[in-house]
Give the backbone structure.
Amino acid sequence: MTIFTKIINREIPADIVYEDDLCLAFRDVSPQAPTHVLLIPKRPVESLDGFTDEDSSLAGHLLLTVPKVAAQLGLENGYRTVINTGTEGGQTVFHLHIHILAGRSLTWPPG
Ligand code: AMP
């Protein structure tokens, strides 16, 4: 079990900004931008690599939820979404999450 499952189960606190039957969004504890939110499926999928063809509905739901969360947070000037996958992809928590970053001009390419 990862720390994100504990957040879903309310075993540890988090600043939750959105929740529905399938997913949860909460503020990153170590924000890399003025707004930094993580959107996660409630089901503990390890990473994008853990998705199968059966998960098209969940995967679509997560993507469709991003702009809803962004609108709720007032990110009308834009935002960046990031999904780190695996160790070289920068993933540190092995429960799939979409980073939503906003509130400053984000540079490209990423580090
Ligand atoms: P990644 O490196 O893509 O796996 O991202 C994991 C993210 O989870 C990092 O940005 C961490 O700051 C964040 N994080 C770790 N623990 C917590 C927590 N308890 N509450 C909120 N965010 C967390």
